């Protein structure tokens, strides 16, 4: 089944302890849709400026990612982010964030986009996430991401959003902030009780946790020795997870757990190089091979 | 098979965000041997002062822990530690550490102790760890723990120790310090290449990693919503792991992985109350039930 995503398309500058890369392809919707494209067709909603290289759009199109929902604003400037990773490669500081054309984005979805059964609202303004849900009909599964900025600045609209979605994906510090709980197990269930049927907490290099009414579990990250650039790991995780669910066409508990595992594995490849550079070089069968290793790793 | 452990027996004062407990039973060898006693008989080597409550020794003896190797120093004072946990319950600061009688401890092992096939050198002065190995003969498996203090102050003796042991257990920050590697997968293998056949890196609430020449894996912590006091979690992990290996009487790769899982589960109980208060209330069948949940959690 097809999968709709709204989120950012951006141009990133990434500083790591060993290397800095300027003006590389990034953005939550970019990582998400590329990751999901290993599993299913993706309909992308986003906005860029005149400075957006058309080659980036071509790269996505070549992956069966529908870019009719991508607006190019004449005279506008694309979302830009600059960040620096600390030595542990897990913590980072955002040095610059320029929303640019994203600030005024008011999408109107193409007709067939509105009937997409699987919808993912990548990290972005909460109001924009509401606007997408307003236009969709007959959605089977609505999942959203959010971040500290929106938790702090739009708590009421975020509370409304939690009642409209089936699943929420967020990282550990965001879950603590939103719930007021320091213990992640309590935090996950506390967030779940505000609306979503399930909550996923991403823990970076430590994996991800899942919470539903009847299930609590944690899956570790795949232990890769080659962490080059963690940017987009969380979005790649979500893309792998949602892509697999859309491919399977259901979200039964067993499917959800396998989807979590695929998300973890796509993310483990994503961090092995800057931007999409590693994901571009792998195929579904590479994911499959790593899945077999991962299953073996967790069997005893 | 029986299991020998040398380490500290202490009296701890533990401050958590919600509660402070004064003068409770603690120490690496205490947590280790209690945890191991779910699986096998333990021979304890350690030293305490005149202030040591005999009831603590009785508590250990009641668990089939042989305390003939426990020296009581007349006029001496027992090892004391005072620590404070941060809000996340994973990071802590040591406020006071008084080695007291441990500083001059020079153990002479009873004859039958020397022939114990499984030996664990809990965290303590590196020289003391060497002294134990010097007295043992025909050991099948030698495993040690260490910590920042000894890595910084006794690097050469620690390097010698790494060549005499089969396995090393340490936490993530210690592994980074010892190896100079920030990536834990690289850190684990770098430490392994200095001598031990396997290395275990404990990651607190995030589980534990295992490294041998042919294996790299990570197992997550059991997600308990009730983390009351993490003191002794690492020692309980090691006790569960070594206890299970000694019970099985081998250290084949499959046994080692199950041992890691048991270590994780014993530790998950240990953190659910102060001191040994939670471990005292469980039985082997509680571990078994949690093991079934844990296996289910990791199956997909």
Defining key terms:
homodimer, 300 residues, alpha/beta, nine-stranded mixed β-sheet, four-stranded mixed β-sheet, 10 helices, 35% helix, globular
Characterise this structure.
2 copies of one chain form a homodimer. With 300 residues, chain A is an alpha/beta fold. In chain A, 35% of the residues lie in helices and 25% in strands. Chain A has helices spanning 28-36, 54-61, 126-135, 148-153, 155-162, 172-179, 184-192, 233-248, 253-270, 284-297; strands at 3-6, 10-15, 20-26, 42-49, 65-73, 79-85, 92-98, 118-121, 141-145, 167-171, 198-202, 208-211, 216-219. A 9-stranded mixed beta sheet of chain A has the order 5-4-1-8-9-10-11-12-13, with helices on both faces. In chain A, strands 3-2-6-7 form a 4-stranded mixed beta sheet. The model of chain A has no long low-confidence stretch (mean pLDDT 96). Chain A binds chain B through residues 17, 87-89, 182-186, 189, 203, 205-207, 209, 216-221, 223-227, 254, 257-258, 260-261, 295, 297-300, and chain B through 17, 87-89, 182-186, 189, 203, 205-207, 209, 216-221, 223-227, 254, 257-258, 260-261, 295, 297-300.
């Amino acid at each position: 089944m097809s999968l709709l995503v709204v989120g950012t398309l951006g141009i990133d500058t990434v500083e790591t302890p060993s290397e800095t890369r300027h003006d590389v392809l990034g953005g939550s919707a970019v990582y998400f849709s590329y990751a999901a494209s290993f599993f299913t067709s993706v309909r992308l909603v986003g906005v860029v400026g005149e400075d957006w290289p058309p080659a980036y759009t071509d790269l996505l199109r070549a992956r069966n990612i529908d870019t009719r929902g991508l607006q190019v604003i004449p005279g506008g400037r694309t979302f830009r982010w600059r960040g620096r990773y600390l030595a542990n490669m897990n913590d980072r500081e955002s040095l610059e964030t320029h929303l640019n054309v994203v600030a005024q984005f008011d999408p109107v979805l193409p007709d067939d986009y509105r009937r997409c059964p699987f919808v993912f609202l990548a990290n972005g303004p909460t109001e924009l996430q509401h606007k997408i849900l307003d236009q969709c009909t007959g959605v089977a599964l609505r999942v959203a991401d959010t971040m500290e900025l929106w938790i702090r600045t739009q708590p009421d609209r975020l509370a409304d959003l939690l009642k409209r979605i089936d699943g929420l994906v967020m990282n550990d510090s965001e879950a603590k902030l939103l719930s007021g709980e320091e213990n992640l197990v309590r935090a996950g269930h506390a967030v779940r009780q505000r609306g979503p049927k399930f909550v996923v907490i991403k823990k970076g290099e430590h994996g991800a946790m899942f919470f539903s009414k009847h299930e609590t579990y944690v899956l570790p990250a795949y232990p890769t020795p080659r962490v080059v650039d963690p940017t987009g790991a969380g979005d790649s995780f979500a893309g792998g997870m949602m892509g697999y669910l859309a491919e399977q066409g259901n979200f039964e508990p067993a499917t959800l757990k396998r989807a979590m595992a695929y998300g973890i594995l796509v993310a483990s490849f994503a961090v092995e190089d800057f931007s999409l550079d590693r994901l571009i070089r792998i195929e579904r069968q590479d994911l499959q091979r790593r899945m077999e290793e991962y299953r073996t790793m967790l069997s005893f």
